[in-house]
């Protein structure tokens, strides 16, 4: 990622594209059990999400179209990022949770349970 501007300097559409790329990298790393690569991509994804949230009007809304993305990891990450903003995100999370025992479905189930039990509140 050298020669690219800092996250805070990028326009929202570039951050959305980076969000997708990082989610796809997380899916690839998950599929190949590459924990280090997964964790590095996840940290960068959190930074992108935080930058979008910091922007006036909470630019995480730009991630809402990703709730219909064909890749399950992109959908999960978009739903997680927008749970506090939209009922559509909750519906997307429930849809992912219903898919069985892939790691994304397990993560979605865990997040929904934490919300229901009050141990986690989306912000």
Binned strand content:
under 5%
* Number of E strands: 0
The assembly state of the depicted protein chains is single chain
Helix content: 55-70%
**What is the count of DSSP helices, taking H or I runs of 4+ residues?**
5
CATH first level of the domain at 7-89: which class?
Answer: Mainly Alpha
Pfam families: DUF2019
Domain DUF2019: 13-115
Organism: Azorhizobium caulinodans (strain ATCC 43989 / DSM 5975 / JCM 20966 / LMG 6465 / NBRC 14845 / NCIMB 13405 / ORS 571)
Protein name: DUF2019 domain-containing protein
Describe it for me?
This protein is mostly helical and 123 residues long. The protein has a domain at 7-89: Phosphatidylinositol 3-kinase, accessory domain (PIK) (Serine Threonine Protein Phosphatase 5, Tetratricopeptide repeat, Alpha Horseshoe), CATH 1.25.40. Helices cover 63% and strands 0% of the residues. It has helices at 12-31, 35-54, 72-82, 87-97, 103-117. The relative contact order is 0.12. The model has no long low-confidence stretch (mean pLDDT 95).
Outline of the structure:
The chain is mostly helical and 123 residues long. Helix content is 63%, strand content 0%.
């Amino acid at each position: 990622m050298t020669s690219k501007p800092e996250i805070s300097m990028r326009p929202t559409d570039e951050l959305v594209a980076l969000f997708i790329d990082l989610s796809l990298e997380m899916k690839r790393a998950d599929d190949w059990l590459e924990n280090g690569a997964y964790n590095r991509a996840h940290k960068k994804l959190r930074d992108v999400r935080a930058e979008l949230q910091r922007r006036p009007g909470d630019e995480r809304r730009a991630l809402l179209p990703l709730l219909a993305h064909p890749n399950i990891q992109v959908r999960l990450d978009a739903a997680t990022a927008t749970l506090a903003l939209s009922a559509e995100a909750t519906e997307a999370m429930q849809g992912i949770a219903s898919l069985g025992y892939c790691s994304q479905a397990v993560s979605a189930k865990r997040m929904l349970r934490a919300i229901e039990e009050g141990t986690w509140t989306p912000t």
